[in-house]
Amino acid sequence: MTDELDRAYAGLDALAQLTDALTDLRPAHADERPLYVGWGMLATVHRQAAAVVLLHRHGFGHETAPNRRSMLEHAAQIWWLAEDGTDAVESMNHALKHKQQKLREAADDSGISYDATIADAVQAAVLPPTSAQTYNHIGHLLKRIGPPLHMIYMSESMLTHASLTSAERFFSGPGTDTVELLTTPRYPSDAPGPDTRAPYIALVLTWFAMTAFNRLLSGQPWTDALQHIAQEAGIEDTAT
């Protein structure tokens, strides 16, 4: 496990250096929006990875499930931008309009006052439908990328949200004479949890996000470096 953690730290550092060195964002296509939206999502992935490492080093690997889930969501969206470009951006605009409307309804229901300028502008926007809108649903998108990613997402969601799965990490022994209540999480000994591997999971997801984002850049300048990092970390066959 120590070797895996060392490779995770080294890989994440190498990926961060690539990002820091990118000073000229030149889009691969005429529509620049996928690149800039992708950059915002990639920056989020990197910050979530840093949070995972920080929490793990302080003994809170279990608590990084929400971070890992967020990383997977953002990495998948970058992949979508690289695949569908303009259609992906327009689909995200549809999702934004829907969510803004739901937010407005919730604020109105609770009697909260707010400046309606942005909400009015979003609601008034006329957006042409796109065939890619179905991929605003994260489950549909992950299945398109690869069914195993959807399974991983579902697993992380069960640890992230209040559920029997998240609760049972903190007690043991149901059905026996002794039930032990725990203050730190415990995973079955025959099925090690993702808490101990959190930094490596973060590395794989960051690498996947950067591989997708590289396709949005003119000339795909990170290709060789990403391949080298994957080989060093042993993840070259991880992402699709």
What is the topology, as strand order, of the major beta sheet?
1-2
Number of helices, counting only DSSP H or I runs of 4 residues or more? 10
What is the mean predicted local confidence, pLDDT?
92
Biggest beta-sheet profile: 2 strands, antiparallel
Calculate Rg over CA atoms: 20 Å
Helix-residue proportion? 55-70%
Identify low-pLDDT runs.
none
Q: Could you tell me how far the N terminus lies from the C terminus, measured between alpha carbons in angstroms?
A: 25 Å
Give the overall silhouette. Answer: globular
Instruction: Work out the strand percent.
Output: under 5%
Order of helices and strands: HHHHHHHHEEHH
How many DSSP E strands? Answer: 2
Helix/strand/pairing category = mainly alpha
> What number of structural domains do the residues give?
1
What does this structure look like?
The longest helix is centred in the first third of the chain and has 25 residues. The chain has ten helices and two strands. α1 packs parallel to α9, α2 packs antiparallel against α3 and α3 runs antiparallel to α7. It has a two-stranded antiparallel sheet. The protein is globular and about 65 Å long. The protein has one domain. The chain has 240 residues and is mainly alpha-helical.
